[in-house]
């Protein structure tokens, strides 16, 4: 078990280092100095990213409970955020491994927990793609390639997340061999639960778009083209949604390169190529360090407090006072 944990940590560290190194190299190629940045805006960007991820984590908890699992809220949120680091490892399967191994609670079946991870991720992709497609079609219809990319992903992901379709896919994958009760568990995954997830993800994606605004506000060279938040939001939200969604549907660790390409394609016509590249790289670095910092903090906090051990500890009986018991 210890060897497995060491391997997982080593893979995560390698993935993070690889992503950071490539990002910094891209910024240096633009002759941009990090000293020019407004750091409070970058801190705000990291905070908005983590806040925007929270509704998605709560949806994962909602899915598990709908499928008759009883995870504790704290362990679920902890597993969700630590699991983010798994996407920087090739294949991204480590996300599922980390979440299923870290979440705690009653009546937890790893097959159901893993199924909930896939349902949550597909819903996030679906909502993000639909969000991007609507914004691009309304404000940036001239970006035909990106528009059709968003529509294609939106249609595919939305179809897969329809409860009857998703249940059928899980059964086709022979999960019943691992868990004979999977059909009964999947019965709880219905339209009201998925609607709850859509609302949660819409809130989350909106906050992620706000995070990109904070990144742009941190770059002095972006000032001449940076309008008010309400004016910039359609561009920023569409950019974040499509960039992350495109990155998720590729096997590349962290969507490296794919996310940056989409961001540069969306931002360059407004801010110019240099600011577009810098913003793409900064967004990745800020989000990565926000994930890493929170994961380190959460990993140092137990998934379940030791209250049960204290409660079960025997309290020694009080010694009798001989003076009070003359017999």
From TrEMBL:
Main location as per UniProt: membrane
Cell compartment(s), UniProt: Cell membrane
A Pfam family assignment: LPG_synthase_TM
GO CC annotation terms, alphabetical: plasma membrane
Membrane topology: Multi-pass membrane protein
Residue ranges of the TM segments: 38-61, 112-139, 145-166, 187-208, 228-249, 270-301
Assigned keywords, A-Z: Cell membrane, Membrane, Transmembrane, Transmembrane helix
InterPro entries, alphabetized: L-PG_synthase/AglD (IPR022791)
Protein name: UPF0104 family protein
Taxonomic path: Bacteria, Pseudomonadati, Planctomycetota, Planctomycetia, Pirellulales
């Amino acid at each position: 078990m210890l060897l497995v944990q060491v391997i997982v940590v080593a893979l995560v560290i390698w993935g993070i280092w690889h992503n950071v190194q490539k990002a910094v190299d891209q910024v240096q190629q633009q002759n941009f100095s990090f000293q020019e940045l407004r750091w409070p805006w970058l801190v705000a960007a990291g905070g908005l990213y983590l806040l925007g991820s929270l509704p998605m984590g709560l949806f994962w908890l909602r899915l598990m409970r709908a499928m008759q699992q009883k995870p504790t809220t704290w362990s679920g949120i902890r597993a969700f955020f630590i699991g983010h680091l798994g996407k920087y490892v090739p294949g991204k399967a480590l996300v599922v491994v980390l979440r299923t191994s870290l979440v705690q609670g009653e009546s937890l079946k790893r097959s159901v927990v893993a199924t909930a991870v896939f349902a949550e991720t597909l819903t996030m992709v679906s909502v993000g793609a639909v969000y991007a497609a609507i914004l691009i079609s309304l404000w940036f219809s001239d970006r035909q390639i990106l528009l059709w990319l968003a529509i294609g992903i939106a249609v595919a992901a939305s179809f897969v997340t329809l409860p009857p379709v998703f249940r059928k896919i899980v059964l086709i994958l022979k999960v019943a061999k691992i868990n004979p009760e999977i059909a009964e568990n999947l019965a709880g995954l219905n339209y009201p639960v998925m609607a709850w997830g859509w609302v949660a993800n819409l809130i989350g994606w909106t906050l992620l778009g706000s995070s990109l605004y904070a990144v742009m506000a941190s770059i002095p060279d972006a000032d001449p083209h940076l309008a008010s938040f309400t004016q910039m939001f359609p561009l920023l939200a569409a950019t974040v949604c499509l960039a992350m969604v495109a990155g998720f549907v590729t096997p590349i660790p962290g969507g490296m390169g794919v996310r940056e390409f989409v961001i540069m394609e969306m931002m360059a016509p407004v801010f110019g190529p240099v600011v577009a590249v810098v913003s793409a790289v900064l967004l990745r670095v800020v989000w990565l360090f926000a994930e890493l910092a929170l994961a380190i903090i959460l990993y140092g906090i137990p998934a379940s407090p030791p209250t049960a051990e204290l409660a079960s500890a025997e309290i020694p009986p009080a010694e009798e006072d001989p003076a009070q018991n003359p017999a």
